[in-house]
Amino acid sequence: MITGAYARYLSRLDRLPAPVLTDYHAAIAAKQVWVLGEPVIAVIVLITEENSLLVENVAVSPAPDESPSARASVLTCVIDRLVASLQFRDQPRDSARLSVIDKL
To answer: What pLDDT, in 10s, does the model give residues 58-92?
Structure first.
């Protein structure tokens, strides 16, 4: 899915982008990988620290029509669900909105 999300840029690059080469096993084990849809249509990798949140990667599966508006719509949905699911400090995350991967 991630390779597909970056496919449109591969011809312009002299090497594969880091998100395509990344082994996500450790991030999955650390519950840093969130997905949207079944089958998966979007992935977001988040690294949380005590007072910060790093968005390591956001990948949206290419829409069948490849239109920017379709991709933007999926990305907006991912961000909306992410914001709704994340709560900081001692409050739990609402995992019903966005699913965290436990394994590949």
So the answer is: 888 876 666 666 667 777 777 776 666 665 444 44
Cα–Cα nearest to 22, from 32, 13, 11 = 32
> What are phi and psi for residue 32, nearest 5 degrees?
-100, -5
Which domain, by its residues, includes 73? Answer: 2-100
Q: Rounded to two decimals, what is the model's pTM? A: 0.67
Q: How many domains does the chain have?
A: 1
Cα–Cα distance for residue pair 78/96, rounded to 1 Å: 13
- The DSSP secondary structure of the chain, one letter per residue, reads -HHHHHHHHHTT-SS--HHHH---HHHHHTT-EEEETTTT-EEEEEEEETTEEEEEEEEEPPPTT--HHHHHHHHHHHHHHHHHH---TTSPP-TTTSEEPS--
